[in-house]
Amino acid sequence: MSIRLSILVVYILFLGTGCDESFQTYNKAAAFDDLHQSIRQYGASVESRGINWDSLYQVYAPLVNEDLTEREFFSIIADMLLELRDPHVWLFTPSDTLFTIDHLSYVKNVNPDLLINQYLQDIQRPHSSILSALLPNNIGYLAIYDFKGERDLLKGIYQDAIERLQDTKGLIIDLRDNDGGSVYNAQHLLNLFTPERILWHTTENKVQAGFDTPFEWYLNHNAEMSYSQPVIVLCGRFTISAGERFAIGARQLTNLQIVGDTTANTQGSVMGREMLNGWKYTFTFERVLDPDGINYAGLGIPPDVYIPSHQSITSTQDLVLEKAISLLP
Amino acid sequence: MWRKRLSLILLICWFNSNLLLGQSDAIFSIGIEMGYEGIYNKDVLSSPLDYHGFGLPIGFFLKKEKDTQIQELEAKFILPFLTNNYPIKSGQGTQLSNWATVQINYSFLAKLNNAPQHALGGTFSNSFFIREYDFLDGGSWELISFLGMTYQWQQNINSNSNISLRVTLPVFSFLHRPPDITLDEAFLDVFFDQGVGGILKYGKWRWQLQDWKAIKVQATYHWQLSERWTLGCQVGLQYYQIDFPQQVENLNLPILCQFAYQF
Q1: I need a labelling partner for A140 at 20 to 30 A (CA). Which of A149, A282, B76, B178 fits?
Q2: How far is A98 from chain B (nearest CA, A)?
Q3: DSSP letters of A140-180?
């Protein structure tokens, strides 16, 4: 009896401490199948972008066999994930990383050093994600690098920044290097330019049985602080995620205009999962529709005034910024 | 605040009910328990991998035993700030970055007239297991509140020790899980505006075997160290499987040392 009890205790302790430090072997075909099914089941990109995900299984599954090295398996997985062309799709392994946006041939249409050296005056950095400055002819400038951070804190910082620029005759909001963040922060900033409550966009989460009930997002007038002069929003291919949702809002507001290039092409929120081998990946789980029901996933938000990214910057000129300045009174 | 005071008063009243009712044949125990708890969890909603590890639970219990009945109240916790909390890991090196469990159980058992070593009754149990996975927005939980049937068999070994086996079969429960793979905006709005109470509406009422199954087994060896002090060693098994929104399977294997004072 005591021997059996000892064996039981040892088994329980083994169960509790888990395996030793070396990882369990895994079946690559099973890991591939699980990933493919998870993207179909939980990802919004397949339907949003009209991708025949099942046909891609027929292309890539035959390439998977148990003799592949980890690097070779990563390459096959990465190639399949790149078919989504979704900047929210990332893949992390112990030795490799995939960021989809690095493979989309996007050109950045902003040069921060050129801005600081040639154009901006009286620069302030109220937060790591925000740069506030003045341009000639009493034009305000606000660069928003992301929408990450605590909501109440950023709401106050946005209001303070706008208050500083309250007496300018026009404002330029630069989102050309904005990699997204909290939609709520984007909403707080947009509210400062919103004269009355309007529908901003709707979102639907991908669930097992399709998409769930649409959720309506609204912009509301901020009674504490608002800016009523004309605003130009600068966008480009590196305006991503919540930055793109800001652009959707800018299209709804008559006092805002978008100049630059089309945004990145992924507006929905992102989540992460892991594969059967412990590799981690991210994808978009949300479908975003503008008030007219248009889904810009895979396309990006088009500007009102288009300047191709590869024609935006010279060594001495920021042509997007100069166009924006010319549009302001 | 008044709710907490009322709860404390009710607890004291229950604990001293023999004095209030003039009964003097009850044995009261108050004790603490601590030990080791192996955990296995596979939550398909969050990950295709199964996770296993252990925690160091700590808890307390109150027990009232008479010739005809047993009442027991137990609260047990595995909380990061209370115990030395080790990460629960998968076989592929991923781990839960944060996790915690809380269990609060109340049992009432009536001893059989002609066979007092057997007791039958019920248990009201509440358990909560919340965990965070170490990648973007990965998290999940189970809140299980059930009413169940409990059977206990107890046998004296000698004048100072006994062994008991208790089996609890949940019958009816309130189950709360994440509503789906992601927490949608409507859910988050309710949570931020109304707190935990607001999101309880996403729970489901279920009978055993209706999208859910569970069982709990405990074996305890008691030593009467002295007239007042007892020592117990308990080995347990708690299993549940919930099939919504996707299947989660969980196994807890506690090994506890219980130290109690009788009066």
Answers
A1: A149
A2: 15
A3: EEEEE--B-S-HHHHHHHHHHHHHHTTT-SEEEEE-TTB--
Considering only CB atoms, A205 lies closest to which of B137, B138, B182, namely: B182
Q: Which residues of B touch A215 (CB under 8 A)?
A: 184-186
What's the count of helices (H) and strands (E) in chain B, helices before strands?
3, 13
- Residue B162 buriedness (CB in 10 A; 0-12 / 13-18 / 19+): middle
CB contact under 8 A, B47 and A212: no
Which of A70-79, A141-150, A238-247, B7-16 comes out lowest in average pLDDT? B7-16
In degrees and rounded to multiples of 5, residue A2 shows phi and psi of -70, -35
Among B231, B251, B248, B257, CA closest to B239: B251
CA dist., res. B49 & res. A275, Å (int): 8
Query: Cβ contact (<8 Å) for A273 and B253?
Result: no
Closest CA to A125 of A154, A85, A161: A161
* pLDDT at residue number A48: 80
Residue B240 identity (one-letter amino acid)? Y
Rounded distance, CA A277 to CA B92, Å? 6
Is the reported ipTM for this assembly greater than 0.85? no
Rounded Cα distance between A116 and A130, Å, is 14
Sign of CA dihedral A251, A254, A256, A261: positive
Asked if A272 and B136 come within 8 Å (Cβ–Cβ), the reply is yes
pLDDT at A25: 85
Q: How far is CA A21 from CA A24, A300, B84, B145, B146, in A?
A: 9, 45, 20, 37, 38
Cα-only R_g, chain A: 24
**Averaged in consecutive runs of 10 residues, what is the pLDDT profile of chain B (263 residues)?**
61 52 73 96 93 94 94 94 76 88 97 90 96 79 96 94 97 92 75 83 92 97 95 97 94 97 92
Per-chain mean pLDDT for chain B:
88
> C-alpha angle with apex B63: B60 to B67, nearest 5 degrees?
165
**Option in A213, A274, A285 nearest B182 (CB):** A285
Q: Which chain A residue's Cα is nearest to B45?
A: A273
How far apart CA B192 and CA B202 sit, in angstroms, is 15
Q: Give the chain A residue whose CA is nearest to the CA of B254.
A: A12
Three-point CA angle A44, A48, A54, nearest 5°: 75
Residue A278, SS3 per DSSP: coil
Provide the token pair at B26: 């009850």
Rounded to two decimals, what is the model's pTM? 0.85
- Residue A307: DSSP 8-state: -
CA distance A283 to A83: 13
CB contacts < 8 A (A, B): 101
Instruction: Mark yes or no for CB contact B47/A274 under 8 Å.
Output: yes
SS3 A121: strand
Q: pLDDT per residue over A243-296, tens digit each?
A: 999 999 999 999 999 999 999 999 999 888 999 999 999 999 999 999 999 999
Provide φ and ψ at A327, rounded to 5°: -85, -15
